[in-house]
Design brief:
alpha/beta; 412 residues; nine-stranded mixed sheet; 49% helix; 2 domains
Length: 412
């Protein structure tokens, strides 16, 4: 691609906007046109009385995403923003967005994924309207297949809920809304790091919003999230490290807050009663692979687990280490303690944070296998109830985390 680099393309020279829809992207030339069209319809139907703009925050995609975006016909004006050549990362796209939102003096910002196949104009309404009614952060709520989003189900949701006391079901959902004021908070935050600049961005934004004590709600989007789904046991590495690493890093940042939180409370839901609910597409899981990766972890990472886990947790882990798939079970209270121990060790231990993260991946595979086995015959609704029960177990186990956290801090 020989085109000269342009950080911003703003054909209509937009200087101010009340409502922004942002679509972050990298190599989405084949997909971006659809969410842009749906977002435009949503703006036209529900926000026609406001100054609006659609922004594509891109990583200088070599596949012509920029042109695909700019060539999509819309009523709303469009702005294309790009990171510098060679600068990747979803979070870096958002940094450009935060700057632009503040510059445009936007009141409200709605973000949707570039690979969405299920977005409707109503999504823009449900993510945007609450921001004009006193809410500062809107997380998505959609029907997902029980095996889509296993990092959310097994780690991000139960950890966020147990730590900060807010039940935000999709803290890394990818489609959400935030106020212009919160955009300034994000821009000014000192907790920005390499993980946040990449896939850690969504959980970072949710966690900062909760810790700002602003009004948060969830928008029920009716349709399932249909995007490029993946088997939970495949190509995890960087995303896992960045999302879970960000959760652990922020625990140090906000420990004055979460160490005082005892119970969780529900978060208001906007947009329930949207008529019929569609079923999400199936996600296939290779359980043999999950078990294989779990067992392999014992050969590769036992020496790390021994250092970062308490003796009791490590002993229980070894007990389930030899189980075959038929009798395999990774109990929730053990999983909560594994995560809590790892969080305590993260950044405090003599072991590199990336090594700690890598050692957690096979355990996460084992836990995912256990969840798949337990919920195999369950409906999506029943599987949701199982996840809610898991979260309650995390909350009940929180005193253990506090005990370990205080012990580590005292020994520093």
């Amino acid at each position: 691609m020989n085109e000269r680099f342009e950080r911003e393309v703003n054909p209509e020279n937009i200087k101010k906007a009340e409502l922004v829809v942002c679509i972050p992207s990298y190599n989405e030339a084949d997909a971006i046109s659809y969410p842009v069209t749906q977002a435009d319809l949503g703006l036209d139907q529900y926000f026609s009385d406001m100054d609006t703009v659609i922004i594509n925050c891109d990583n200088n995609s070599p596949d012509n995403t920029r042109q695909a975006f700019l060539d999509t016909r819309t009523r709303a004006p469009k702005i294309y923003l790009s990171t510098e050549p060679g600068i990747k990362g979803k979070g870096n796209n958002f940094k450009n967005l935060f700057e632009k939102v503040v510059e445009l003096k936007a009141k409200a910002v709605v973000v949707v994924d570039a690979d969405l196949k299920s977005i409707t104009p109503e999504w823009i309404r449900h993510l945007g309207k609450p921001l004009l009614q006193g809410f500062s952060y809107v997380a998505p709520l959609y029907i997902r297949h029980k095996y889509d989003g296993t990092i959310t189900n097994g780690i991000a949701y139960p950890m966020t809920r147990a730590l900060y006391g807010r039940r935000v079901r999709q803290p890394i959902g990818g489609d959400f809304g935030f106020s212009g004021k919160l955009g300034q908070v994000y821009l000014d935050s000192a907790s920005w790091n390499e993980s946040v600049a990449n896939f850690g961005i969504d959980i970072w934004m949710t966690t900062l919003a909760i810790n700002q004590k602003v009004q948060i709600c969830q928008a029920f989007l009716g349709r399932p999230k249909i995007h490029r789904t993946k088997d939970p046991g495949s190509d995890l590495g960087p995303m896992f490290r960045q999302v879970v690493g960000t959760i652990f890093c922020l625990m140090k940042e906000f420990d004055a807050f979460w160490t005082k939180v005892k119970y969780s409370r529900p978060t208001a839901i906007f947009g329930f009663g949207l008529g019929e609910v569609e079923m999400p597409p199936k996600v296939d899981v290779d359980t043999d692979n999950l078990l294989h990766q779990f067992h392999q972890g014992f050969d590769r990472f036992s020496h790390i687990w021994e250092q970062i886990l308490t003796a009791d947790v490590y002993r229980k882990l070894k007990e389930i280490g030899g189980l075959k798939e038929r009798e395999f079970n990774f109990p929730t209270d053990l999983w909560a303690r594994v995560l809590f121990d790892t969080a305590v060790s993260y950044g405090m231990a003599r072991i590199e944070p990336d090594e700690i993260m890598d050692s957690l991946i096979p355990l996460y595979f084992g836990r995912t296998l256990s969840f798949v086995k337990r919920t195999r015959k369950m409906s999506i609704k029943q599987a949701e109830e199982a996840i809610e029960n898991d979260c309650e177990t995390f909350e009940m186990t929180k005193p253990y985390l506090l005990q370990q956290w205080n012990k580590r801090r005292a020994s520093k």
